[in-house]
Amino acid sequence: MGDTVSTEKRSRLPARVARRRAGRTRLSPDERRRQLLRAAADLMTTHGVDRVQFAEVAAAAGVTRQLMYRFFPTRQALIMAVLEDYADDITQRFGHGAAHSIPGNLEEVTRVFVEAVCDTIEAKGAGPWQLLDSKGPDRKLARHGQALQERIVAPWRARIAETIGVSEHEAAIVARMIVAAGRAVLELWYSGALSREEAVRTSTRGVSALLQAFSVRRGRRSRSR
Predict the structure, then answer these.
(1) What is the DSSP string of 118-155?
(2) pLDDT class for 171, splitting at 50, 70, 90?
(3) Which CATH number fits the domain 14-73, given the four candidates 2.160.20.60, 1.10.10.60, 1.10.1090.10, 3.40.50.300?
(4) Contacts of 9 (CB under 8 A, 6+ apart)
């Protein structure tokens, strides 16, 4: 009798509540954490980082705020985790150290990297990619984003220095310029002004031209001596 009543009560629950309850019992801690990161990344992309609040993310994921605190002690920790997940995804897609292992010239490697970034943006949204280069008021978050961006481009430095014959210091500067140029083009893509194919092609050509300019400059400087 008790089982029958319990079953009847469950059957009268709103479908949305039933799905939420079922979801909370089915997901493992790792799966739940990934779900919360996806919900936060989606909000970041569609509404901006200011909307990434615990109440908003919890509602989007169909969980309680209390559950979110089990994974992220603060809002800042949640946003940092979103950026870390994003950087990890780009690194995995491109392949750690791929700038050294992929055959071909640097232009081909650039194309592979830009494709990896595009794949991550399509999978996780453009919001975290934009925030990686944030100069916002939260200094700790901005430093964290910059550090992650540096980690993403780190495999490039040695390859850039070797290819165009500059010092590690100069290669780091060139790498920053490459990222800035790539960001400008990719923004046109995810805003709808360019197709993905156009964005990849333009980014690759732009990076190649930049590297060639630095290489030529160095050659002229050597001849002038």
Answers:
(1) HHHHHHH-SHHHHHTT---S-HHHHHHHHHHHHHHHHH
(2) confident
(3) 1.10.10.60
(4) none
Residues in CB range of 38: below 8 A, 6 or more apart: 124
pLDDT of 70-80, one tens digit each? 999 999 999 99
Tally the C-alpha atoms within 13 A of residue 49's C-alpha that lie toward its C-beta.
Answer: 22
Question: How far apart, in whole angstroms, are the C-alpha atoms of residue 137 and residue 197?
Answer: 35
Domain boundaries of the chain, sorted by first residue: 14-73, 80-225
**What pTM value is reported for the model?**
0.78
Tell me: pLDDT of 204 over 50: yes
- Over 50: is that where the pLDDT of 26 sits? yes
- By the 10 Å C-beta count (0-12 exposed, 13-18 middle, 19+ buried), 50 is classed as exposed
Per-residue tokens: 155: 């495999």
pLDDT digits (tens, 9 = 90+) for 104-128: 677 777 888 888 899 999 999 999 9
For residue 176, give every residue at least 6 positions away whose Cβ sits within 8 Å of its Cβ, in sequence order, or none: 153
What gap in Å lies between CA 5 and CA 136, rounded to an integer? 55
Matching residue, tokens 């980082």? 49
Name, in order, each residue with C-beta under 8 angstroms of 99's C-beta and a sequence gap of 6 or more.
109, 113, 155, 156, 158, 159
Reported for 189-192, long-range contacts at CB under 8 A and 24+ positions apart, including other chains, are: 189/118, 190/121, 190/126
